[in-house]
Amino acid sequence: MAPSFSQIPRSSRRRYFFVFFGIVAMSTIFFVRFRHDQNKTEYVLGRDVLLPQKTISMSTIQGSEPMSLEQEQAKRMAVFKDYCRRHQPNTVPVANETISRFIVNDKYKILYCFVPKTGTTTTKHVFYNLEHGTNTTTLFLGSKHLKFLSEYTDNEILRRLETYIKFIVVRDPLERLASSWKNKFMDIRGAMRYWFIEHYQSMLETIGDNEPGEKITYQDVNWKHIPFLAFIRAIARNQTRWMNPHWQPVYQLCSPCQVNWDYIAHTETLVEDFHLFFKKAGIVGRENIIPKMEERVGSRFYLEGFMKIPLEEIQRIGELYQSDYDMFGYSFQEDLDNLMKHVIKEKLHDN
């Protein structure tokens, strides 16, 4: 089994620390070239890992000086448009699956393509409250409470895609994966949690049947808990068998390059993004429905979770979510750096 981030022998802690520190330092100096298996595009593994050369990077447009959210939004759009210009021209029609993911707000002429585990519940409530003039945060918003673009005629769909404000929320891929696992396999109570555990029991194949694990009983049936390692390994090794919208890459959900987006929000700055979006969309007097900033579960868990995952599996995840990293201005290298720093911090704390 490949070693995980946290598997450093205590007896060799000092030696491994210096070796590990050296690797981190050297990785910021040297570049390792490799070729993508599908399109043979050359990539650089360095400060912008898995980003094609000569692309616009979120960290290089205006240097490293602090920016306003308006400048940040301009950078996001520049990175996104640059990616789509080089990879996926928008002459391809929007996929039918994408049409069914757009929530329609006719009152303010907004389309929102929802991506699970990006602050979707919060965002749905914001657009529901905008449409109905309410201020609810507790209503369970099912399909009967929201209007979807797929409910309209072809002409009405086309008109809304051409004239409405298009809004999307995205999230760092590793953090989104961690949040998805914790929510669907750990936090949910009742039938829905057990549906996920039952439906994805086959993920345990990736770690072997002999691995010890927590057992869960539901309706007199025993099921094994799905560990984070099994979840990540399943997604990394089979992109179709175990895929689900809650952790499916954004580029497979919302046909990003086929839509002329007006605003790209990040889960990490969602509250601030809402304030700026309201301003740009001409929404006045409804700031009271914007939620307050709360700590994200995924942001707390993803470092602890991924430091126990073999590096080989994390690299595979990086390749699978490469397009999400590239088009939305996230950095797989920064995620790796954060994991490495977290491991070093934990090891020093153990001394």
From TrEMBL:
Q: Any idea which UniProt keywords this protein has?
A: Carbohydrate metabolism, Glycoprotein, Golgi apparatus, Membrane, Signal-anchor, Transferase, Transmembrane, Transmembrane helix
Membrane topology is: Single-pass type II membrane protein
Top-level EC class as recorded in UniProt: transferase
Membrane spanning stretches: 16-34
UniProt-listed GO biological process terms: carbohydrate biosynthetic process
* Example of a GO cellular component annotation carried by this entry: Golgi membrane
State if Membrane is listed as a keyword. Answer: yes
Instruction: Tell me one Pfam family matched here.
Output: Sulfotransfer_2
- State its Enzyme Commission number(s): 2.8.2.-
Keyword Ribonucleoprotein: yes or no? Answer: no
Q: What is this protein called?
A: Carbohydrate sulfotransferase
- Record the organism: Branchiostoma floridae (Florida lancelet)
* Taxonomic placement: Eukaryota, Metazoa, Chordata, Cephalochordata, Leptocardii
What gene is this protein a product of?
LOC118430621
